[in-house]
């Protein structure tokens, strides 16, 4: 009888131990699954995300249109200090009739926060949004496969941005490539209004007084069509017009940096700037979001 009781106790102990092992293993797997990307830079503050430059020194390289295919060349901006690991990358398209110079201010401002940034020219300045979507993808392919900075880029952490038709192109690029980790359309324009198939976290930035791509016909319908998961936000610049994204803008920079950090790098330190929605900010006329993320 004592032997049976001891054997039964031993069996229960073994079963319990196995259960604990499985639980611990499961927790280890979970921890591994949510492990963030390489973290770049000190803990962020309001001052750091609104500063004209971040903590990284930046270099740049011109890419001739004659040396690439599928887009019109551009300029790569990149951090020079790689001691903290690989960087996420984002490529940026100008709008209709625009060139990379109209988006040049994003290069050093974003790169100095710890990203590789590629401001591109399109094949022609009149290319339509779907063409710009393909060119955004082609420029990402160039970055990770052929560029001189490919060895400092994490190819699993890529995003797109764009202004006007380039913004519509960034939405289409995200629709076509669910592997993209972040998209930021800037006063976007597109004849398609339904982007419910997008699986990329998307921040849409509209302009209250935009008469080229009125928010009621473009930015807001785009936002409303996006699924709530894995995350979306709509920011409307108070009193601004369609060309607001073409000049250095602290509000655009703050939210773009925070969105890219949060979703390209999985850096939850930047949640504080996205969620809850901002209050008493005269530069913002509307802000909607699916927060918390």
**Overall form:** globular
Count of helices?
7
Mean pLDDT: 89
The major sheet is characterized as:
9 strands, mixed
Which regions have little confidence, pLDDT < 50, spanning 5+ residues?
1-35
> How many strand elements?
9
Strand content: 15-25%
How much helix, percentage-wise, in residues? 25-40%
SSE succession:
HHEEEHEHEHEEHEHE
What is the gyration radius calculated from CA atoms?
22 Å
Q: For the largest beta sheet, what order do the strands appear in spatially?
A: 1-2-4-3-5-6-7-8-9
Distance between the termini: 58 Å
Structural class: alpha/beta
Short description:
Helices cover 32% and strands 20% of the residues. By secondary structure, it is α/β, with parallel strands linked by helices.
């Amino acid at each position: 009888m004592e032997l049976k009781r001891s054997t039964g106790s031993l069996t229960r102990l073994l079963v319990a131990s196995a259960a604990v092992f499985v639980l611990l293993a499961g927790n280890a797997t979970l921890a591994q699954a949510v492990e963030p990307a390489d973290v770049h830079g000190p803990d962020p503050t309001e001052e750091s995300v609104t500063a004209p430059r971040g903590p990284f020194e930046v270099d740049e390289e011109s890419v001739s249109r004659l040396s690439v295919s599928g887009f019109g060349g551009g300029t790569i901006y990149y951090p020079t200090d790689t001691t903290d690991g690989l960087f996420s990358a984002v490529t940026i398209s100008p709008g209709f009739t625009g060139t990379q110079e109209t988006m040049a201010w994003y290069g050093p401002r974003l790169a100095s926060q710890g990203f590789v940034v590629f401001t591109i020219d399109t094949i022609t300045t009149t290319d339509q949004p779907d063409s710009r979507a393909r060119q955004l993808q082609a420029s990402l392919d160039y970055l990770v496969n052929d560029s001189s900075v490919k060895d400092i880029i994490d190819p699993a952490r890529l995003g797109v941005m764009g202004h006007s038709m380039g913004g519509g192109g960034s939405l289409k690029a995200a629709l076509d490539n669910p592997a993209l980790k972040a998209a930021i359309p800037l006063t976007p324009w597109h004849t398609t209004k339904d982007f419910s198939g997008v699986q990329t976290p998307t921040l849409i930035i509209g302009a209250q007084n935009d008469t080229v791509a009125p928010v009621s016909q473009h930015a807001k319908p785009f936002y409303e069509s996006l699924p709530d998961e894995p995350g979306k936000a709509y920011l409307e610049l108070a009193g601004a017009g369609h060309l607001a994204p073409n000049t250095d803008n602290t509000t655009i920079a703050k939210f773009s940096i925070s969105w890219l950090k949060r979703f390209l790098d999985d850096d939850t330190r930047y949640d504080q700037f996205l969620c809850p929605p901002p209050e008493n900010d005269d530069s913002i006329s509307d802000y909607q979001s699916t927060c918390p993320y």
